[in-house]
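Run log, item B.
One chain of 48 residues. Sequence copied directly from the ordering sheet:
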Amino acid sequence: MARNELTWSDENYRIFGIKEGAPLTYDVFLNCIHPDDRDFVNRNGNWL
């Protein structure tokens, strides 16, 4: 993720409880992930 910016569908905003149109960064996404799972996501996040 070169620009630290994510593009989400309206459904992604709804699922994660983020206001539609809000700027999304990797940190915003990571804060939606359960704390116990964040290390796993960080290690395997190259699919983003």
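Observations after the first pass:
- The chain is about 40% helix and 0% strand.
- The helical segments are 10-16, 26-31, 38-44.
Flagged for discussion on Thursday.
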